[in-house]
Each structure stands twice: as structure tokens, then as C-alpha cells.
């Protein structure tokens, strides 16, 4: 499943249209969408999204490298209620320097069906950055993935983005 990049509709006239996500509203159980303004320039946000030592401070430690096809692991706490092993097998799928990063996340546990795509899109806005996160690939027919959708929806908006803001403020 592919979805338009957030902001694609307004690329010709930045600021002319409200920020919204076509489809995939709150009732979309296959994806999570987050739209967050950060009072930091895009280059600073990009650093936090792509430098391994910074990623470890707000997301999870791992051996990330900004290179399409690079496979790496991220370490987190296991979540038995969702079947999450605590180890994410990740791969860089695509990027546009300073604008977009797309990665694939799979659980290291062979029986876990999680196979997600995470896309970060940055748009300059005033003196800051509008950060869009699209986390796709949830299976609404899988009870463990429904639980993961609920937990991660809350986690992206609270814990993760708050951690990102703390890291940005310290740079």
C-alpha cells in the first residue's frame, strides 16, 4: 500500500493549504499519522533523525547509517502483550537529504507478523519544521497488531516526539 507523502498536495504553494493527510484518519487501523511542529530548522531535525548517537537518545539505540539498503537493528524493551521481541530489524528504503527518510521495521522474532514502513517527512515552516510521521503496515485482523497500533499511536505522540524535542533543544 502506498500513500501520498504528507504535504504533496501543497508542494506547489507551500502554506496555501492546511496540513492534512489524505485518508488514514483516526479510524485507519493500518497506519498511524503524526503531524508535529518543531521550533527547530529542518537541518537540525534531519540530524536528529539520521545521526545514530542522536537517534539512540530519542528513539532506540542502533547501528543506523544513511544509505539505501543498509540493514541495522534497534534495541527496545520487549512488549509481550503485542508479541514484540524488543529487537527491530530495520532497513533504509529511501531518503531525500533534509526532507524524507523511509525505513522498514520488522520484529526479529520469526513468528511476529509486524512488517512496517516508517516515513518521516520534513517541511520548513516559519523558523521551524513541520514533521510528518507515517507508520504503515498494521494488520487490523491481527489482535497483537491492533494492540501495537494503539500503544505505538500513543507512544509516537508522547514519549518519542517528546524525546526528539528534548534532543533538539540540547543541540
How does the SSE layout of this entry go?
Blueprint: E1 31-38, H1 42-50, H2 52-58, E2 71-75, E3 87-96, E4 100-107, E5 115-125, E6 128-136, H3 143-170
Antiparallel strand pairs: 1-6, 2-3, 3-4, 4-5, 5-6
Helix pairs in contact: 1-2, 2-3
Description:
Helix content is 26%, strand content 30%. The protein is α+β, with helices and mostly antiparallel strands and 171 residues long. The chain has a six-stranded antiparallel β-sheet, covered by helices on one side. It is globular, with a radius of gyration of 16 Å. 24% of the residues are buried.
Distance between the ends: 36 Å
How much strand?
A: 25-35%
Q: Return the structural class.
A: alpha+beta
Average pLDDT number: 86
State the shape: globular
Task: Report the total helices.
Answer: 3
Oligomeric form of this entry?
single chain
Q: Name the helicity range.
A: 25-40%
Q: Can you tell me the residue ranges where pLDDT is under 50 for at least 5 consecutive residues?
A: 1-24
Order of helices and strands: EHHEEEEEH
Instruction: Find the count of extended strands (DSSP E, 2+ residues).
Output: 6
Largest sheet: 6 strands, antiparallel
* C-alpha-based Rg, rounded: 16 Å
List the strand order in the largest sheet: 1-6-5-4-3-2
Amino acid at each position: 500500500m502506498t500513500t501520498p507523502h504528507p504535504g504533496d498536495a501543497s508542494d506547489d504553494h507551500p502554506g496555501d493549504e492546511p496540513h492534512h493527510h489524505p485518508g488514514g484518519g483516526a479510524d485507519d487501523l493500518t497506519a498511524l499519522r503524526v503531524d508535529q511542529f518543531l521550533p527547530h530548522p529542518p537541518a537540525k531535525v534531519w540530524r536528529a533523525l539520521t545521526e545514530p548517537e542522536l537517534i539512540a537518545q530519542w528513539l532506540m539505540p542502533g547501528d543506523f547509517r544513511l544509505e539505501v539498503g543498509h540493514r541495522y537493528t534497534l534495541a527496545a524493551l520487549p512488549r509481550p502483550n503485542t508479541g514484540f521481541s524488543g529487537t527491530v530489524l530495520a532497513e533504509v528504503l529511501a531518503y531525500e537529504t533534509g526532507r524524507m527518510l523511509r525505513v522498514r521495521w520488522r520484529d526479529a522474532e520469526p513468528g511476529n507478523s509486524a512488517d512496517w514502513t516508517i516515513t518521516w517527512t520534513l517541511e520548513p515552516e516559519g523558523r521551524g519544521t513541520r514533521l510528518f510521521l507515517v507508520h504503515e503496515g498494521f494488520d487490523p485482523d491481527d489482535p497483537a497488531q491492533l494492540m501495537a497500533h494503539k500503544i505505538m499511536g500513543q507512544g509516537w505522540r508522547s514519549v518519542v516526539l517528546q524525546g526528539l524535542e528534548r534532543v533538539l533543544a540540547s543541540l
